Please model this.
Amino acid sequence: MDSNERQLTNQKPKRGIVLLNMGGPDSLDSVKPFLYNLFSDPDIIRLPFSAILQKPLAALIVALRGEESKENYKHMGGFSPQLPRTQEQAEALRVELSKRLGEDIPVYIAMRYWHPFTEEAVARIKQDGIEELIILSLYPHFSYTTTGSSLNALQQALSAVNYPIANVVIEPYYNHPDYLDAFAETIQEGLDKHTWGCPKENVRILFSAHSLPVKHVQRTKDPYPEQIRASAETVMTKYFPSYEWDLSFQSRVGKMPWLGPYIDGVLHYYAGLNQDNILIVPISFVSDHVETLVELDRDYVNLAHDLGIQYCHRAPVMNDRPSFIHTMANLVCHAMTESDHKYQEALQGAQRQILPDYDSVKTVPLTLN
Model:
Protein backbone atom coordinates (compact mmCIF):
# COMPACT_ATOMS: atom_id res chain seq x y z
CA MET A 1 0.00 0.00 0.00
CA ASP A 2 1.60 3.33 -1.03
CA SER A 3 1.08 6.70 0.65
CA ASN A 4 -1.78 7.55 -1.74
CA GLU A 5 -3.74 4.51 -0.55
CA ARG A 6 -2.63 4.31 3.08
CA GLN A 7 -5.44 4.34 5.63
CA LEU A 8 -5.10 5.86 9.09
CA THR A 9 -4.36 3.24 11.74
CA ASN A 10 -3.01 3.18 15.26
CA GLN A 11 0.41 2.47 13.78
CA LYS A 12 2.61 5.56 13.54
CA PRO A 13 3.68 6.51 10.00
CA LYS A 14 7.17 5.70 8.77
CA ARG A 15 9.09 8.92 9.28
CA GLY A 16 12.01 10.58 7.59
CA ILE A 17 13.79 13.90 7.95
CA VAL A 18 14.88 16.09 5.06
CA LEU A 19 17.43 18.88 5.42
CA LEU A 20 17.06 21.76 2.95
CA ASN A 21 20.11 23.69 1.82
CA MET A 22 21.50 25.61 -1.13
CA GLY A 23 24.23 23.25 -2.33
CA GLY A 24 27.44 24.08 -4.13
CA PRO A 25 29.60 22.84 -7.00
CA ASP A 26 31.47 19.61 -6.37
CA SER A 27 34.12 20.29 -9.02
CA LEU A 28 35.42 23.18 -11.11
CA ASP A 29 33.46 21.84 -14.09
CA SER A 30 30.23 22.18 -12.14
CA VAL A 31 30.73 25.84 -11.12
CA LYS A 32 29.06 27.32 -14.19
CA PRO A 33 26.10 24.88 -14.24
CA PHE A 34 25.61 25.56 -10.54
CA LEU A 35 25.53 29.33 -11.14
CA TYR A 36 23.12 28.85 -14.03
CA ASN A 37 20.74 26.86 -11.82
CA LEU A 38 21.02 29.51 -9.11
CA PHE A 39 20.24 32.51 -11.27
CA SER A 40 17.57 30.66 -13.25
CA ASP A 41 15.48 30.52 -10.08
CA PRO A 42 12.84 33.28 -10.15
CA ASP A 43 12.80 33.22 -6.35
CA ILE A 44 16.37 34.60 -6.47
CA ILE A 45 15.91 37.23 -9.17
CA ARG A 46 12.36 37.79 -10.42
CA LEU A 47 12.02 39.56 -13.75
CA PRO A 48 9.07 40.83 -15.78
CA PHE A 49 8.24 38.11 -18.31
CA SER A 50 10.42 35.76 -16.27
CA ALA A 51 9.43 32.73 -18.35
CA ILE A 52 11.17 34.40 -21.30
CA LEU A 53 13.96 36.42 -19.70
CA GLN A 54 15.06 34.35 -16.70
CA LYS A 55 17.28 31.84 -18.45
CA PRO A 56 18.95 34.36 -20.80
CA LEU A 57 19.77 36.49 -17.74
CA ALA A 58 21.21 33.44 -15.96
CA ALA A 59 23.37 32.65 -18.99
CA LEU A 60 24.61 36.25 -19.09
CA ILE A 61 25.56 36.21 -15.40
CA VAL A 62 27.42 32.94 -15.88
CA ALA A 63 29.29 34.40 -18.86
CA LEU A 64 30.27 37.47 -16.82
CA ARG A 65 31.07 35.80 -13.50
CA GLY A 66 31.83 32.18 -14.29
CA GLU A 67 35.60 32.37 -14.54
CA GLU A 68 35.93 34.58 -11.48
CA SER A 69 33.76 32.14 -9.52
CA LYS A 70 35.92 29.23 -10.65
CA GLU A 71 38.95 31.01 -9.24
CA ASN A 72 37.15 31.37 -5.91
CA TYR A 73 36.45 27.63 -5.82
CA LYS A 74 40.06 26.90 -6.73
CA HIS A 75 40.93 28.78 -3.54
CA MET A 76 38.89 26.15 -1.62
CA GLY A 77 40.45 23.17 -3.37
CA GLY A 78 38.21 23.08 -6.43
CA PHE A 79 34.81 22.44 -4.82
CA SER A 80 32.36 23.72 -2.24
CA PRO A 81 32.63 22.12 1.20
CA GLN A 82 28.93 22.70 1.88
CA LEU A 83 27.78 19.18 0.93
CA PRO A 84 30.42 17.39 3.07
CA ARG A 85 29.56 19.66 6.01
CA THR A 86 25.82 19.04 5.49
CA GLN A 87 26.43 15.30 5.30
CA GLU A 88 28.27 15.50 8.61
CA GLN A 89 25.34 17.39 10.12
CA ALA A 90 22.86 14.84 8.76
CA GLU A 91 24.81 11.88 10.14
CA ALA A 92 25.31 13.53 13.52
CA LEU A 93 21.59 14.30 13.69
CA ARG A 94 20.71 10.69 12.79
CA VAL A 95 23.00 9.36 15.52
CA GLU A 96 21.68 11.80 18.14
CA LEU A 97 18.06 10.93 17.37
CA SER A 98 18.86 7.23 17.47
CA LYS A 99 20.26 7.67 20.99
CA ARG A 100 17.25 9.66 22.14
CA LEU A 101 14.44 7.74 20.46
CA GLY A 102 15.86 4.26 20.11
CA GLU A 103 15.04 4.11 16.41
CA ASP A 104 16.97 4.84 13.23
CA ILE A 105 15.20 7.63 11.33
CA PRO A 106 16.65 8.30 7.87
CA VAL A 107 17.93 11.83 7.21
CA TYR A 108 17.87 13.02 3.60
CA ILE A 109 19.61 16.01 2.04
CA ALA A 110 17.82 18.14 -0.57
CA MET A 111 20.08 20.72 -2.21
CA ARG A 112 18.46 23.44 -4.27
CA TYR A 113 21.04 24.12 -6.99
CA TRP A 114 23.40 21.14 -7.15
CA HIS A 115 23.57 17.46 -6.29
CA PRO A 116 21.89 15.91 -4.45
CA PHE A 117 19.01 17.90 -5.96
CA THR A 118 15.58 17.98 -4.35
CA GLU A 119 14.35 15.54 -6.99
CA GLU A 120 17.06 13.06 -5.99
CA ALA A 121 16.06 13.30 -2.33
CA VAL A 122 12.39 12.78 -3.22
CA ALA A 123 13.25 9.70 -5.28
CA ARG A 124 14.96 8.17 -2.23
CA ILE A 125 12.12 9.20 0.08
CA LYS A 126 9.59 7.53 -2.20
CA GLN A 127 11.75 4.43 -2.65
CA ASP A 128 12.05 4.09 1.13
CA GLY A 129 8.30 4.37 1.58
CA ILE A 130 8.42 7.37 3.90
CA GLU A 131 4.90 8.33 5.01
CA GLU A 132 5.64 11.44 7.05
CA LEU A 133 8.40 13.96 6.41
CA ILE A 134 9.94 16.27 9.00
CA ILE A 135 11.28 19.21 6.99
CA LEU A 136 14.16 21.19 8.51
CA SER A 137 15.66 24.11 6.62
CA LEU A 138 19.33 24.80 7.26
CA TYR A 139 18.54 28.48 6.86
CA PRO A 140 17.65 29.61 10.41
CA HIS A 141 16.17 32.85 9.03
CA PHE A 142 13.27 32.59 6.58
CA SER A 143 13.50 34.18 3.14
CA TYR A 144 11.45 33.44 0.05
CA THR A 145 14.79 33.21 -1.77
CA THR A 146 16.09 30.40 0.46
CA THR A 147 13.70 28.34 2.57
CA GLY A 148 10.77 29.50 0.44
CA SER A 149 12.39 28.44 -2.80
CA SER A 150 13.47 25.10 -1.30
CA LEU A 151 9.97 24.33 -0.03
CA ASN A 152 8.53 25.24 -3.40
CA ALA A 153 11.00 22.89 -5.11
CA LEU A 154 10.12 20.11 -2.66
CA GLN A 155 6.41 20.49 -3.36
CA GLN A 156 7.02 20.42 -7.10
CA ALA A 157 9.26 17.35 -6.86
CA LEU A 158 6.67 15.44 -4.82
CA SER A 159 3.91 16.42 -7.23
CA ALA A 160 6.00 15.38 -10.24
CA VAL A 161 6.21 11.80 -8.96
CA ASN A 162 2.64 11.81 -7.60
CA TYR A 163 3.77 11.30 -4.02
CA PRO A 164 1.67 13.35 -1.62
CA ILE A 165 3.04 12.92 1.86
CA ALA A 166 2.13 14.02 5.35
CA ASN A 167 4.61 16.56 6.64
CA VAL A 168 5.71 18.88 9.39
CA VAL A 169 7.67 21.98 8.38
CA ILE A 170 9.82 23.31 11.22
CA GLU A 171 9.44 27.07 11.48
CA PRO A 172 12.40 29.48 11.34
CA TYR A 173 14.47 29.08 14.49
CA TYR A 174 16.48 32.31 14.34
CA ASN A 175 15.48 33.28 17.90
CA HIS A 176 15.08 29.83 19.42
CA PRO A 177 17.02 29.57 22.70
CA ASP A 178 18.96 26.47 21.63
CA TYR A 179 20.05 28.09 18.38
CA LEU A 180 21.07 31.27 20.19
CA ASP A 181 23.12 29.23 22.66
CA ALA A 182 24.99 27.59 19.79
CA PHE A 183 25.36 30.92 17.99
CA ALA A 184 26.79 32.59 21.10
CA GLU A 185 29.23 29.70 21.41
CA THR A 186 30.65 30.47 17.95
CA ILE A 187 31.12 34.14 18.89
CA GLN A 188 32.83 33.25 22.16
CA GLU A 189 35.11 30.81 20.35
CA GLY A 190 36.06 33.55 17.89
CA LEU A 191 36.89 35.88 20.76
CA ASP A 192 38.89 33.24 22.62
CA LYS A 193 40.93 31.67 19.83
CA HIS A 194 42.47 34.83 18.34
CA THR A 195 45.07 37.31 19.51
CA TRP A 196 43.80 40.84 20.11
CA GLY A 197 45.45 44.18 20.69
CA CYS A 198 43.04 45.05 23.49
CA PRO A 199 41.01 43.32 26.21
CA LYS A 200 38.47 40.98 24.60
CA GLU A 201 35.61 43.09 25.98
CA ASN A 202 36.72 45.95 23.71
CA VAL A 203 36.62 43.91 20.48
CA ARG A 204 33.93 45.18 18.14
CA ILE A 205 31.53 42.54 16.77
CA LEU A 206 30.57 42.87 13.10
CA PHE A 207 27.79 40.56 11.95
CA SER A 208 27.77 39.76 8.25
CA ALA A 209 24.68 38.34 6.54
CA HIS A 210 24.00 37.45 2.92
CA SER A 211 22.28 40.42 1.30
CA LEU A 212 19.08 40.50 -0.78
CA PRO A 213 17.87 42.91 -3.48
CA VAL A 214 15.88 45.73 -1.87
CA LYS A 215 13.16 45.40 -4.53
CA HIS A 216 12.64 41.75 -3.59
CA VAL A 217 12.27 42.60 0.10
CA GLN A 218 9.81 45.38 -0.67
CA ARG A 219 7.79 43.31 -3.14
CA THR A 220 7.45 40.19 -0.98
CA LYS A 221 7.66 41.79 2.47
CA ASP A 222 10.35 39.21 3.10
CA PRO A 223 10.87 38.79 6.87
CA TYR A 224 14.57 37.97 6.45
CA PRO A 225 16.04 41.41 7.37
CA GLU A 226 13.98 41.65 10.55
CA GLN A 227 14.86 38.09 11.58
CA ILE A 228 18.56 38.70 10.98
CA ARG A 229 18.53 41.80 13.14
CA ALA A 230 16.48 40.03 15.82
CA SER A 231 19.09 37.25 16.08
CA ALA A 232 21.94 39.73 16.35
CA GLU A 233 20.18 41.92 18.91
CA THR A 234 19.06 38.99 21.05
CA VAL A 235 22.39 37.19 21.14
CA MET A 236 24.29 40.39 21.95
CA THR A 237 21.83 41.52 24.63
CA LYS A 238 21.73 38.11 26.31
CA TYR A 239 25.34 36.97 26.04
CA PHE A 240 27.58 39.97 25.25
CA PRO A 241 25.80 43.04 26.69
CA SER A 242 28.96 45.13 27.10
CA TYR A 243 30.22 44.73 23.53
CA GLU A 244 29.72 47.22 20.70
CA TRP A 245 28.39 45.65 17.53
CA ASP A 246 27.10 46.36 14.04
CA LEU A 247 25.23 44.48 11.32
CA SER A 248 26.43 44.40 7.70
CA PHE A 249 25.63 42.51 4.50
CA GLN A 250 27.71 40.76 1.84
CA SER A 251 27.47 38.87 -1.49
CA ARG A 252 25.53 41.43 -3.51
CA VAL A 253 25.38 40.92 -7.28
CA GLY A 254 25.06 43.65 -9.92
CA LYS A 255 24.37 47.34 -9.54
CA MET A 256 20.80 47.28 -8.20
CA PRO A 257 20.32 48.33 -4.55
CA TRP A 258 20.78 45.48 -2.06
CA LEU A 259 20.30 45.38 1.69
CA GLY A 260 23.04 47.31 3.45
CA PRO A 261 25.23 48.58 4.88
CA TYR A 262 27.73 46.58 2.84
CA ILE A 263 30.55 45.05 4.82
CA ASP A 264 33.29 46.74 2.82
CA GLY A 265 31.81 50.16 3.61
CA VAL A 266 31.60 49.32 7.30
CA LEU A 267 35.27 48.27 7.32
CA HIS A 268 36.23 51.60 5.73
CA TYR A 269 34.19 53.34 8.44
CA TYR A 270 36.01 51.39 11.16
CA ALA A 271 39.35 52.31 9.68
CA GLY A 272 38.35 55.98 9.87
CA LEU A 273 37.57 55.51 13.57
CA ASN A 274 40.92 53.77 14.15
CA GLN A 275 38.94 50.75 15.33
CA ASP A 276 41.69 48.14 15.40
CA ASN A 277 40.00 44.99 16.78
CA ILE A 278 37.15 43.45 14.78
CA LEU A 279 35.51 40.02 15.00
CA ILE A 280 33.46 39.28 11.88
CA VAL A 281 30.56 36.96 12.76
CA PRO A 282 28.78 35.18 9.89
CA ILE A 283 25.04 35.19 10.55
CA SER A 284 22.54 32.99 8.66
CA PHE A 285 25.30 30.58 7.57
CA VAL A 286 25.39 27.19 9.35
CA SER A 287 28.09 25.53 7.22
CA ASP A 288 31.27 26.79 5.59
CA HIS A 289 31.13 27.62 1.90
CA VAL A 290 32.36 30.26 -0.52
CA GLU A 291 30.83 33.18 1.42
CA THR A 292 32.78 32.34 4.58
CA LEU A 293 35.97 30.77 3.26
CA VAL A 294 36.59 33.17 0.37
CA GLU A 295 34.52 36.35 0.77
CA LEU A 296 35.09 36.76 4.50
CA ASP A 297 38.37 34.94 5.19
CA ARG A 298 40.20 36.12 2.11
CA ASP A 299 38.55 39.22 0.69
CA TYR A 300 37.21 41.13 3.69
CA VAL A 301 39.75 40.14 6.33
CA ASN A 302 42.47 41.13 3.85
CA LEU A 303 40.65 44.38 3.09
CA ALA A 304 40.58 45.17 6.80
CA HIS A 305 44.31 44.59 7.05
CA ASP A 306 44.93 46.74 3.98
CA LEU A 307 42.92 49.51 5.64
CA GLY A 308 45.21 49.37 8.67
CA ILE A 309 42.90 47.34 10.93
CA GLN A 310 45.53 45.15 12.56
CA TYR A 311 43.35 42.65 14.38
CA CYS A 312 40.48 41.40 12.21
CA HIS A 313 39.35 37.79 12.51
CA ARG A 314 36.30 35.66 11.71
CA ALA A 315 34.20 33.59 14.12
CA PRO A 316 33.47 30.00 13.09
CA VAL A 317 30.11 28.83 11.76
CA MET A 318 28.09 25.94 13.17
CA ASN A 319 29.12 23.05 10.91
CA ASP A 320 28.70 19.91 13.06
CA ARG A 321 29.45 21.40 16.48
CA PRO A 322 27.56 19.44 19.17
CA SER A 323 25.49 22.43 20.33
CA PHE A 324 24.04 22.88 16.84
CA ILE A 325 23.32 19.16 16.46
CA HIS A 326 21.58 19.40 19.85
CA THR A 327 19.52 22.29 18.48
CA MET A 328 18.54 20.36 15.36
CA ALA A 329 17.60 17.28 17.38
CA ASN A 330 15.44 19.33 19.77
CA LEU A 331 13.65 20.98 16.84
CA VAL A 332 12.96 17.60 15.22
CA CYS A 333 11.79 15.96 18.46
CA HIS A 334 9.44 18.88 19.13
CA ALA A 335 8.06 18.56 15.61
CA MET A 336 7.49 14.85 16.08
CA THR A 337 5.63 15.43 19.34
CA GLU A 338 3.37 17.98 17.66
CA SER A 339 2.84 15.56 14.78
CA ASP A 340 1.84 12.78 17.16
CA HIS A 341 -0.87 15.01 18.63
CA LYS A 342 -2.15 15.85 15.16
CA TYR A 343 -2.06 12.20 14.18
CA GLN A 344 -4.33 11.28 17.07
CA GLU A 345 -6.74 13.97 15.87
CA ALA A 346 -6.53 12.50 12.37
CA LEU A 347 -7.56 9.11 13.74
CA GLN A 348 -10.78 10.79 14.84
CA GLY A 349 -11.61 11.93 11.34
CA ALA A 350 -9.37 14.88 10.43
CA GLN A 351 -7.63 14.85 7.05
CA ARG A 352 -3.85 14.55 7.10
CA GLN A 353 -2.03 17.58 5.76
CA ILE A 354 -0.51 17.53 2.28
CA LEU A 355 2.48 19.79 1.59
CA PRO A 356 1.03 23.14 0.42
CA ASP A 357 2.64 25.93 -1.50
CA TYR A 358 5.27 27.61 0.67
CA ASP A 359 3.34 30.89 0.79
CA SER A 360 0.74 29.23 3.02
CA VAL A 361 2.80 26.50 4.64
CA LYS A 362 1.80 25.49 8.15
CA THR A 363 4.72 25.50 10.56
CA VAL A 364 5.34 23.99 13.97
CA PRO A 365 5.06 26.61 16.73
CA LEU A 366 8.14 26.78 18.95
CA THR A 367 8.05 28.04 22.52
CA LEU A 368 10.60 30.81 23.09
CA ASN A 369 12.00 31.90 26.44
About this structure: Residues 1-6, 350-369 have pLDDT under 50 and may be disordered.
